Amino acid sequence: MTLHTFPLRWAALALACTALAAQAQTASVEETAKKTAAGAGCFACHTVSHQDLKGGQLPIGPAWEDVAAQYRGKPGAADFLTRVVLEGSNPYASHWKNKAAGIAMPPNAVAITESDARQVVYWILSLK
Ligand code: HEC
Questions:
Q1: Domain count, the chain
Q2: Is the CB of residue 95 below 6 angstroms from any atom belonging to ligand 1?
Q3: What is the pLDDT of residue 74?
Q4: Residue 104 within any structural domain of the chain
Q5: pTM of this prediction?
Q6: Is 3 a domain residue?
Q7: How far is the CA of 3 from the centre of ligand 1 (A)?
Q8: What is the 60 CA–ligand 1 centroid distance (Å)?
Q9: Measured in angstroms, how far is the CA atom of residue 111 from the centroid of ligand 1?
Q10: Which 3 state secondary structure label does DSSP give 5?
Q11: From the CB of 86, is ligand 1 less than 6 Å away?
């Protein structure tokens, strides 16, 4: 190894390590969010991925990938959705006509803390 390629190799190695660390972090954000959501009972009504049910039946709550598609890039989405998760949705204004059963979401504040709800919402909004 000549002297001037030496720092370049270290830079490449450092870059590779950073990429790996970022990947590991993404995986653990997802794992933590899924575990929190499962513990709070969210999956009784929601799935992560959109699924076409038999006979055109609609799911109780919208698939979280559909939620991400609807709210991605909208300012204040994370704050708004965190409030909806904690306090429940407006029973007279379903946003999910034709995508979910059309009923309101009950409040979940008894099942999940505000900071956990926020973490789950951040993860939902990151879904593609
Ligand atoms: C008893 C069923 C039920 C449970 C349990 C439930 N949800 Fe929901 N969720 C719904 C329904 C129904 C809607 C659609 C509400 C509407 O159209 O107003 C919804 C909507 C949502 C939305 C989109 C809100 C919006 O305004 O568009 C998010 C985000 C969400 N739920 C997250 C969660 C999380 C996180 C949990 C667990 C802490 C959870 N839900 C638990 C039924 C449920």
A1: 1
A2: yes
A3: 96
A4: yes
A5: 0.86
A6: no
A7: 59
A8: 9
A9: 13
A10: coil
A11: no
d(CA 7, CA 37): 45
Q: Is 89 in the pocket of ligand 1 (CB under 6 A)?
A: yes
Distance CA 83, CA 71 (A): 14
Round the average pLDDT of the chain to a whole number and report it.
Answer: 90
Q: Which atom of ligand 1 is nearest to the CA of 44?
A: 5
Q: What are the tens digits of pLDDT across the range 34-75?
A: 999 999 999 999 999 999 899 989 999 999 999 999 999 999
The reply to whether 8 falls in a domain is no
For atom 39 of ligand 1, the residue with the nearest CA is: 42
H/E element holding 114?
A: helix 114-126
CATH code for the domain of 61: 1.10.760.10
Domain span at residue 85 reads 28-126
- For 81-114, how does the pLDDT look when each residue is reduced to its tens digit (9 = 90+)? 999 999 999 999 888 988 899 999 999 999 999 9
Q: At what angle do helices 77-87 and 114-126 cross, to 10 degrees?
A: 130
Examine residue 7 and state whether it is found in any structural domain, yes or no: no
User: If you measure from the C-alpha of residue 28 to the centroid of ligand 1, how many angstroms do you get, rounded to a whole number?
Assistant: 23
